[in-house]
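Lab meeting, action items carried over

1. Structure of the two-component assembly. Owner: GW. Status: complete.
Input record:
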Amino acid sequence: MSEPSSSQELVRFVLNGQPVEVFVTIDEPLSQTLRRLGETTVRESCAVGLCGCCTALVDGTSVSTCLYWAVMADGTQVDTLDGLASDERVTGLQTSIAEHGAAQCGYCTPGMVMTALELFDDGGPRSSEEIGAHMNGNLCRCACYPEMTCAIKDALTQAHERSGR
Amino acid sequence: MRSETLPQDWTSHAWQRAIGNVRYTDDDIPQGMTYVVLVRSTIAHGEITSIDRDQARAVPGVLGVFTFDDLMTVTREGYHGTGYRDQPMIADGIVRHYGEPVVAVVATEQRIAQEAAQLVNIEYRPLPVVIADHAALTNPHALHQDIEPSADFIDLKGITPLAENPNVYVRSILRTGDFDEVAKDAPHVFEHHFSTASASASPLETVSSYAMPNRDGSIEILSQTQMPSYVRVQLARMFGMSESRIRVRHVALGGGFGFKIYARTEPIVVACALLIGRPVGIKFSMEEQFYLPHRRGTTSTIASAVDDEGNILARRCFIIWNGGAYADVGPRMVKKGGNVAAGPYNIPVVDIESVGVYSNRIPGGAIRGFGIPQIVWAYETHGDMIASSLGIDPVTFRRRNLMKRNAIHHTGTPLGPCDPSLVFERMIKELESRPLVEPDSPELKAGRGVAIALKAAMGPTTSTVKLTLNPDGSATVHCGTVEMGQGSDITMAQIVADELNLSLDEVKVVSGDTDSVPWDAMTAGSRSTNHMEKAISRAADDLRTQIRSLSDSMDTEDRIADDVDPFKVKGGAIEYLRAKFGPMGATLTGVGAFIPDYIPPDSDGRSERITEFWMCAATAVDVIVDPLTGVVRIDQLMTISDVGKAIHPELVRTQLSGASIMMASISMSEEIKYDDDGQLLNPGLALYRIFGFEDSPRAVYADMVLDKRDQVPRGVGESGTFGVAPAIASAIHDAVGVWMTDLPIKPENVLRAIEEAADERAQ
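Predicted assembly:
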């Protein structure tokens, strides 16, 4: 961490379960802060909140971190894909993505997983249309949309079956 | 970062990406990096009259504010380009497109460089701006003087601008007879005009490159490039260094699509790094990435003479490729596009002229398909319009004219095992089980369209591999194919595993470092699996020869018979290594190189050997059109591609599917816009809209035609793109009876066409 300048503020939050303290400039997007902290699954692309590559969870809600000021993260709990490595919903979805071949270059994939997670909250299966509507803020230039839709759909169904047992 | 158990099959490709286990270029930026930010031209054409950089230089943290002349103090040759050396690293006294880099500002942090870049004041004397295709062709002012062909590639040797119009940097002719002679006696002659807009490939991982000078005078470059070997060659030439002193590294790319080719940002970071003696990197924002080369816009005129049954007797094509300010890949695209501009049809007489022209647009580059989608857009829509005029359905019209296996293409090169007729029939069969959707509401109209296309593989380019047999019998292959999402790493591993009779987990693929990986021309043009498989096979043969010679010194009964594959004997090749070198064995390395045979075309553009292989794909599209709004929704998108042999069929299907959806996006949503002064109006994904989940077709089907006789992979990266646009247009015509002739197909244009047709009927 470099020495703080007058225009910097100290921000404290819990990142993937570990408390962190970091100096940020007032206009620094959270995406840049997370990358500085080594979170490589947070990826900056469009920088205007349209592609979803920088998606992370702030207090459990998925946000485009390129549009989320780092100072706003003070006192929150921030989770990236790496922090959810043992989450059963995440591993189930990752397995489904592998089986459907739903990642080509893979640059957008962690953001896709983070956004899709919210679909698991209700616990029920979803239609392709519902999945498409929820995921529409995540772009994939390789256009794995059909494969990703199937992957999410299967993972939701399997999670539902697991919870039913 | 986790190290989960790796599934040892094709699913490991997506698995590694889903768990975030793939590192991209910007994830491992070397220590001590400084950043260059480019000050870009605010006009599309003009002479630079002054550059004031005092204020920028005074900003704390700024390490240098460099013009072209400054960069030249450490550079031997400041121009680059694959066809012509027409492009300076940054502007050399003149700017030829809006957004052209003029000044390079280097600072300790990117944001400091960005702030300082705002303080550079550049004055210009404006020159006339030419943006539109026809205006570029008739522009009386030469945009370049005395350009030099680069002669990097065999198929681009001897190119020269037209003497009478130096803005035409290449003209390609393919002529098998006299069109007018046939047309004057033909029952029907049709002529139509088509256009396509420029588009941006927009990979989500935006472009970056980093240069690290070493104390010994060598330099290392970490770059997002589809062409590490070529980048090294170009840097060696430009900076007067031995290739052995230049190390180009890369990791997996977050999308390539033909966008990350040739030397573009690398010369700038190398020059800046040499000037300041520190590591220098460049990282473009998505918006800035829109100033890198675009898919070329085209204007085509295509005419056909046909008989009453719909047999095409002769076809004439004229294509203008708007190449922008620098030729870039234009010369090759103009030739390759021109070669196949008459389509995969048996036509006795073709007369094709394809011209590449300079303009003040952002330079034309390549996106997935390398110009072929623009060509197919014209000839397939033209064909549908002819069929409709003659009252013949589009399927029958194609059946009457389609080439079959072993046909001789217009170029004079045989199609060999590629069979357009077979591919088309396979798709028609698939369509039988997928009926056209019934729209939810009676106001909505559904329609179906089909298209088929042919592309010659990349011109002759070389792939080399180094195949190492490790002491335990496992294998390591050094292979320059760049993994950018297509699954090449797992594909190359499977090829080696099959060749050496190993399991996938016994094979390691090493790429990404020109210090150890041998030459490979590029990962582009759907060439890699075909060329690399041949190179790997030759390297494996080299290993077989070496193992045989080991066995020659053994007792007679242990020698390997001539008809026995050393990798298939009991105990494996390792037994011979151990017999010769002791229980821990030794390393054997085989090498293999492949370059296709090639015969340059004659003065009519004909050659018996213009390509190593042909690629053919058919596309079908179902649309639902709302005639009240002109909104078109793709309901079903089908691609059937002739792939020869599929190493991992699942990866082939996702390549075809992704390519087809990407091209649906380009065909319906994407358009680079300029104002009259040549200013780019829509950089960035807020203004330039690409398809998302909800734009994607309801049903996407992709499958392949395999060839059991000719077990050779033919390339799949591009073929899904070829016929998408004309199939959409054909489906729209089927639904609402209007023809779309300009890309992209926008709702307002569909609506206007519907209204005009209604007006005509009313009159």
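2. GW to write a short summary for the group page. Key points so far: Chain B has three domains: 12-127+203-289, 294-458+602-762, 463-594. The two ends of chain B are 69 Å apart (CA to CA).
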